Amino acid sequence: MRGRALTTGAAWPATVVMQCSRVLIAGAAYHRALMATFLDDLRAVAPQMRLLTDEADRESFRRDETAHFEPGLPLAVALPTSTEEVATILRTATAHGTPVVPRGAGSGLSGGSAGIEGALTVALTRMDRVLEIDRDNRVAVVQPGVINADLKKAVAAEELFYAPDPASYEFCSIGGNIGTNAGGLCCVKYGVTRDAVLSLEVVLADGRVIRTGGRNVKDVAGYSLTHLFVGSQGTLGIVTEATLRLRPTPPPKQTMLAFFPTLDAAGRAVATMTRSGVEPCTLELMDRVTIAAVDDWHNLGLDRSAAALLLVESDAPGARADDELAVAESACTEAGASSIVRATDAMEADWLRQVRRLAFRAMERLGVARMEDVGAPRSRIPELLAAIERIAAAHDVRCGTFGHAGDGNLHPTFVWDRGDTDTEERAHAAAEELYRAAIALGGTLTGEHGIGAARREFLELQRGADAVDVMRSIKAALDPLGILNPGRVV
User: Fold this and answer.
1) Would residue 419 be called left, alpha or beta, if left means φ above 0 and alpha means ψ between -120 and 50 degrees?
2) Cα(270)–Cα(377) distance, rounded to whole angstroms?
3) Is 245 exposed, middle or buried (0-12, 13-18, 19+ CB in 10 A)?
4) Could you tell me if 175 and 265 lie in one domain?
5) Which of 119, 115, 50, 100 is nearest to 79 (CA)?
6) Residue 177 lies inside a defined structural domain of this protein
7) DSSP string covering 451-486, please?
8) DSSP 8-state symbol, 381
9) Last residue in a domain, options 248, 283, 300
10) What are the pLDDT digits (tens) for 44-93?
C-alpha cells in the first residue's frame, strides 16, 4: 500500500477499506468505553456534584461569545460547589488523562472557555458566594462564579469600590475576569483585573490546592504566582477563590460626550489628553459604524453625521473633576470636535455611559461579529485608528471600531452576513494583517480578551519563539499531562 495516494479518488481494495473501517469503529468504541469509565468514576467520588451528560445540556456549554470560532461538544459538564469538588474532578481527570475546560459565565471573546470534543467542561457558576468583605483591609474574598456587577453592589453597600469594569460586567464572572485578566471602561485610571488581585486559591492539574499571595499591601515572598495564574485562561490551574483589592467609593462621575468629523481628530484628542497628564476614569471611543448601530437599535438621537465620539468621565473629588473635564474639553476642541455634550445629572451621565456599553451588542445585530482586541501605546492611537480603516477598506470588510482609547486598547469589529464564507475569509485575513500592524506600532494583538484558541497561532508573532517556549515549559511543569484547557494560549 506504500505510495498509494491518500485522496478521495484513490481506489483501495474492498478488503482494505473494510479492515480500516473495523479498526476505526473498534477505536471509537474503545474511546467511548474509556470516557464512560471516567464519568462513572467521577460520579463515584463526587456523588453530590451535578454532572450534565444529556446532549442538549452539553450543547448549551459548547460556545462562548466568540461567534466566528467553532468549538467542540463537551463530553460532560461538571458543576462543582466547592474547592474540594474541583480538586476531586482534577484528581480523577489526571488518573484518566481526560482533558478539562474551566468555564465561567461563557462571556469570553477568544474561545478560551469554549468546548473541546471529548473534554470535561467544569462550569464554576455555582461557586458564586461573596465569602467576606473586609473593610479594615479593603479586600473582598469571593468564589469564581460571582458576577462582577453583584460584587460591585455588595461592596458598595460597605462604601467600597471594586474597580475592574468590563463592558459585560452585568453578566461576566470574577473567575472569567481573572482567567483573561479582563479590563474594561475604568482601566485608564484603575488598571486591569491583575491590579485588583491580591491572592488566589488554585487547584492544580493533579488536584493539589495552593494559595498565592495574601492580604498584605506589600509581599515579595517567592515568585509572583498570583500574577502567573491571572490571565492564564485555565491552562495552569483552576481558580476557586480570590482575594481582591477594594478602594474607597469615588465621588459621582462627571461625564461628557464629544463628537468629531473625522476618526483622526478623535485620535488626536486622545493623544493630547494623554500628554496633558489628565487622568479620566473613562476615556472611550466609538466610530461612525458603531454610532449608527447603537442609534438604530435604541433611537438615542446620537449625531450620526459624526465620524467618531469620545466618552470622557472624571471621578476626581470636588472641583478637580470639573478641572479634568475642562482639560479634556479643551483637547477635544483643539482637535476639531464638532459638538460636546455634558451630563447635567447622574441619570443623564448613566445614559451617556450606556451608549458605549451597548456597542458590541449593537454590532452583533448586524450579522456575525468578530470583535478584535488590539492595542498600541496611547500616543500612537491615531496611527492605530488609521491602520484599522486602511485594513478594513483593503479587504472590503465592514468594520466598526470602539474601545478603551484612554489605555490604547481598541475593538475593531468585523461584521458579515451569516453564511457569507467569502467575506468571512476576508475578515480573517484582515484580522491577521491587523495583528501585524498593531505589533509594528509597539502594541499587542490582545489587550484584555486573551489569546484563548482564536489567537493562539499568532502569539509567537508578538512574543517571539523563545518567550513562547518558556511559556510551554511553565505549562509542562504545572500540567505535565496537558489536560488543562489543551490547545489554548500555547
Assistant:
1) left
2) 11
3) buried
4) no
5) 50
6) yes
7) -TTTTGGGHHHHH-HHHHHHHHHHHHHH-TT--BST
8) H
9) 248
10) 999 999 999 999 999 999 999 887 778 999 999 999 999 999 999 999 99
Distance of alpha carbon 385 from alpha carbon 266, whole angstroms:
9
Dist. CA 371–CA 414, nearest whole Å? 6
Give the span between the Cα atoms of 33 and 15, in whole angstroms. Answer: 27
- Report whether 468 contacts 490 (CB < 8 A): yes
CB 172 within 8 Å of CB 105: yes
Contacts of 266 by beta carbon, 8 Å cutoff, 6+ apart: 258, 260, 285, 307, 308, 309, 310, 335, 385, 405
Q: What per-residue confidence (pLDDT) applies to 399?
A: 97
Q: Select from 207, 18, 10, 223 the least CA-distant residue to 100.
A: 207
pLDDT score for 1? 35
- 285 beta partners: 310, 403
Nearest to 151 by CA among 168, 170, 135: 170
CA distance readout (Å), 387 to 11, 390, 400, 401, 408? 51, 5, 13, 12, 14
Residue 215 to residue 12: CA distance in whole angstroms: 68
Q: How confident is the model at residue 9 (pLDDT cuts 50, 70, 90)?
A: very low
The total number of residues written for the chain in this structure: 490
Q: Compute and round to an integer the Cα radius of gyration of the chain.
A: 24
> Are residues 385 and 398 in contact, defined by beta-carbon separation less than 8 angstroms?
no
d(CA 278, CA 192): 19
* Whether 273 and 419 share a structural domain: yes
d(CA 287, CA 292): 9
Q: How are beta strands 50-52 and 76-79 bridged, if at all? A: antiparallel
Tally of structural domains, the chain: 3
Residues 223 and 258 placed together within one structural domain of the fold:
no
Query: Is 396 inside a domain boundary?
Result: yes
Give the type of residue at 283: L
Q: Is the dihedral of CA 167, 169, 171, 177 positive or negative?
A: positive
Residue 21 has pLDDT above 80, yes or no: no
